[in-house]
Amino acid sequence: MKIRPAISLPTAAAYALIGAIVLAVAGLFALVGGWIGTPRVSGSTVSDALEYNAGHHPGYRRAHAKGLCISGVFEANGAGVELSRASIFKPGSYPVAGRFSIAGGNPLAGDGRNVFHSMALILRTPDGQQWRTGMDHTEIFPVADVESFVGLQRASRPDPATGKPDPARMKAFLADHPEVRAFQQYMQAHPLPDAFTDGPYYSINAFRFTNAQGMARYVRWAMLPEDQTVALDKKALGDLPKDAVFDRSLARLAQGPVRWHLVVTIAEPGDVTDKATAMWPAGRRTVDVGTLIIDKALPEAAGNCRDMVFDPTILPPGMAPSADPLLAARAAAYSSSFTRRAGEGARSSLSTAAKEF
Description:
Elements: H1 9-33, H2 43-54, E1 66-76, E2 92-102, E3 117-124, E4 130-136, H3 146-155, H4 167-176, H5 178-189, E5 201-202, E6 207-210, E7 216-225, H6 244-255, E8 258-266, E9 286-299, E10 319-321, H7 325-342
């Protein structure tokens, strides 16, 4: 007697195909998460390293803990459509929300430190596209990969007795990471703006833009201020009032809107696009694609940026990450930081908390 199979062969094949797809997707997530293949440093590991360096401050971001919410508009002039099909470059005015901040995981630290000043933004278009970006006032980053970033946080942890890193540990780290020493020299020579409102901001990482005709280019971008940059005296940073950079920024905004030009720099063949430690040679072609106008600032306790995640890999069609490994690491670290502070309650560290402009 012939026994019929409980499931027909076509149906079994379909189930097998579905199962294979599920396993493939699971494998992809496992690979990206570092569970199989080459081990990766997780976002949680990065958050742990930042807490190890600056201490645990419940309710605050693990990096750039001291910040100020900002809002305004981006006025696109239309020149960007040559580079990318993203809607944000079509002529028009688009709402922007974001955050100014100073590097470091201690929200109570003073502003008299020669560290990153940062601008993070979320730009939105009426068709639902979003562009998220986090920029620093320096053109390069101290390390090229996340493992080195974690190592830097551990090596540069301040000794409670001296307030400075252990010299022997830092010396050993620098010996293995000459790019960090080069960045230290860069920071000594690079101007430190006296306010967020007169500083430039750079994408640090490279990205790939593709226009409507399918032409792809690697780019970096910069927000270049219309206000003249006033540099702080680095020899007198210890005498700077605790919230000086924030107070000066709020005072400038009280006088009226502040403007930056969004300038895109286009890479040429041979330019390094996967390392944030590498600067591109001068003379690369640039395109001014529009003007950022910031007209309002609020402390985080009263503003709307407290729960924003400025993941630089959240990009509209026409923009994509480069192969720079720091981009995926930044996305994972920002997510981990958000998850931790979301369960801790948010705070405001500024003495200017009652001010609004």
